[in-house]
Design brief:
InterPro entries: GHMP_kinase_C_dom, GHMP_kinase_C_sf, GHMP_kinase_N_dom, GHMP_knse_ATP-bd_CS, Homoserine_kinase, Ribosomal_Su5_D2-typ_SF, Ribsml_uS5_D2-typ_fold_subgr. It comes from Mycobacterium syngnathidarum. Pathway: Amino-acid biosynthesis; L-threonine biosynthesis; L-threonine from L-aspartate: step 4/5. The structure is a single chain. Helix 1 crosses helix 2 and helix 3 runs antiparallel to helix 4. By secondary structure, this protein is of the alpha+beta class. The two termini are 37 Å apart. It has 2 domains: 179 residues, 2-Layer Sandwich (Ribosomal Protein S5, domain 2); 117 residues, 2-Layer Sandwich (Alpha-Beta Plaits), CATH 3.30.70.890. A hairpin with a 5-residue loop joins strand 7 and strand 8. Strands 2, 3, 4, 6, 7, 8 and 13 form a 7-stranded mixed sheet that branches. 33% of the residues lie in helices and 30% in strands.
Amino acid sequence: MNTTLPAGLTATAVVAASSANLGPGFDSLGLALSLYDEIIVETTESGLRLEVEGEGAGQVPLDATHLVVRAIEAGLAVTGHRAAGLIVRCRNEIPHSRGLGSSAAAVVGGLAVVNGLVVQVGSDPMPTEQLIQLSSEFEGHPDNAAAAVLGGAVVSWTEADDDGRPHYRAASVRIHPDIRLFPAVPQQRSSTAETRAVLPDQVSHFDARFNLSRAALLVVALSERPDLLMSATQDVLHQPQRAAAMPASAEYLQLLRRYGVAAVLSGAGPTVLGLSSQAGLPGEAVDYGTANGFTVKEMSVGAGVRWTSGVAARN
């Protein structure tokens, strides 16, 4: 039986955006970005009040179907608690439907904020491994979720438990300090389900070998050899297939690569992520992006999810 939390508890979670795939690491590699959503929760005597500021305001549901609320309810159930009522405030900076892991951030943040509530009544918080598992169950794969939980770059994978259920795992990858990140976010939105539908059910041995080699090389490039980023970010399994669905992103990706920037689709797009060891992007590339509706801004590597009891200021 779940124990009801007393009214008046407050907790806060701050969670980063993430970029998945990074070119060849389809559904496996992820990277957190320094763009954050904040979730503040208060327990009440009854009811649900949901407030959304920033990205998604006026567009997302303000009821129990909201992804943050669903994650909070799941986290409470797993930890053996329930809340008679909740006030949930979401302060969003991560754009929705742009390939920046907004759904993963919502789930990870909702789960993490539960930790901030339950520790106030003497319960143990969910450990990192459990946050990865539960958030990945929402997502169906752990690349964005693991990056949001752990921060930095991650390699993620899935194993089958003895009962056949998926067990989601992830390991952190050191990021070379010279690597700089340049997300280019368009106004256009995309649906991951729709862009995944254009991918073939089978690939050739040649294409599989190509991506395996590039994904392995990318781990080396990210951690030790930024000079290898251009070769390491090549992909033949999903980016060419998605180009027709987002032509502006595909064109900008190729333009950045012609200027020597290791550009990839961020997740399923349409955001393009440039990785470079140079101080900035070439001016012509920035001008092209601006003229074609992309907001280009340098970011640093994002931190792992942070939670606290009470209302804390964002770092």
